[in-house]
Design brief:
Elements lengths: L4 E4 L4 H13 L4 E2 L6 H11 L3 E5 L7 H10 L5 E6 L4 H9 L4 E4 L4 H12 L7 H9 L14 H11 L4 H8 L3 H15 L4 H10 L12
Parallel strand pairs: 1-2, 1-3, 3-4, 4-5
Helix pairs in contact: 4-6, 7-9, 7-10, 8-9
Length: 218
């Protein structure tokens, strides 16, 4: 029986080195070369067929959810622990949908990381409590209210985004600065795991912020 292989990915060197040290300390398996971007992570997955993957959901180059989906379609079914800065419920449930065995926020302490890394290595699922509850419901699309704690300003900006306004137009419409618009847009994307215009529009319609007919055509 060949030794278990472990692929660690992290966009920054420090986090990657810490994760590799934890894997070695727990004697989980043989480490593949550390990956810092999406293309190298996907290439290493095909090359090494790892039994265990620790996947950064914020890798540059390729959307990490696309990487998860690609792995999910394959014949092998590795254990996958996803880590992310400021993990939000929408991104977390999407990751679980595409096969993540565990989820952890990068702000977690080393002892929590150690426990979760070891737990997931043996196929035990480990999700934050709020995400676990949503996973039990089986379909986040049916329960948008659990994700949609929008502020008044976020709702206004979300509506204007779906209508195709640029930052300057939104600032003029709302009588705020362009920097304030950019701040709230980034907050929206980070909070709800929105990475494309299609996701923003779908999110707005699902959560009753606007009607489909009111949005720009995609």
């Amino acid at each position: 029986m060949r030794q278990k292989t472990v692929l660690v990915t992290a966009r920054d060197v420090f986090t990657g080195d810490v994760l590799c040290d934890l894997v070695e300390h727990e004697h989980i398996g043989k480490l593949c070369p550390l990956c810092h971007n999406g293309p190298s992570a996907l290439s290493s997955y095909y090359r090494y067929s790892p039994h265990y993957i620790i996947l950064d959901l914020q890798l540059p180059g390729i959307n990490s959810l696309d990487i998860l989906e690609e792995i999910h379609k394959g014949r092998s079914h590795p254990q996958i622990l996803c880590h992310c800065q400021k993990l939000n419920t929408m991104l977390g449930v999407k990751a679980v949908h595409f096969g993540a065995t565990g989820l952890i926020d990068k702000d977690s302490n080393l002892e929590t990381y150690r426990k979760v890394i070891s737990k997931v290595a043996y196929g035990m699922k480990s999700y934050p409590e709020e995400i676990q509850e949503l996973v039990k419901k089986n379909d986040y699309e049916k329960h948008p209210q659990d994700y949609s704690k929008l502020t008044r300003m976020q709702k206004q900006i979300l509506i204007l985004i779906t209508r195709g306004l640029n930052n300057s137009q939104m600032a003029l419409n709302l009588k705020i600065s362009v920097k304030t618009v950019e701040y709230h847009k980034n907050k929206l994307k980070t909070k709800f795991g929105l990475t494309s215009m299609a996701e923003i529009v779908s999110f707005a319609v699902r959560n009753g912020v606007c009607e489909k007919e009111e949005t720009l055509c995609l």
